[in-house]
Amino acid sequence: MSRLPDVTIQVLRFEAGAHLADSSGFALLSFEQDEPPLGYIETLAGELFLESSRDLARLSAAYDNLRTLAMSPAESIRFIKELSKHGT
Q: DSSP per residue over 50-78, as a string?
């Protein structure tokens, strides 16, 4: 999958500590130029779809925080390959 041009894999190790998205998963969706972006969050109470620029900015900040804390794409691929050698 990592060889696909539109796929980036980054591993976030537990050692990275607390981050802005530790309570739930989310997605930032972008569409064709005429369509506005959309945020999607899964919660225990159900799904949330976010459209306001304020909410999208929060999700974008959380995403940027995750990317900063995570291993680089190259480090992540090496890490995954090493784990797969050991069957872990």
A: E-SHHHHHHHHHHHHHHHHHSPPHHHHHH
Distances from the Cα of 54 to the Cαs of 6, 20, 50, 60, in angstroms? 27, 16, 9, 10
The rounded distance, in Å, linking the Cα atoms of 81 and 60 is 29
Query: Bigger pLDDT: 88 or 72?
Result: 72
The closest alpha carbon to 1, from 88, 80, 83, belongs to 80
pLDDT digits (tens, 9 = 90+) for 41-61: 988 888 999 999 999 999 999
| Confidence check: pLDDT of 22 > 90 | no
Length of the chain: 88
Place of tokens 């909410």: 55
pTM: 0.74
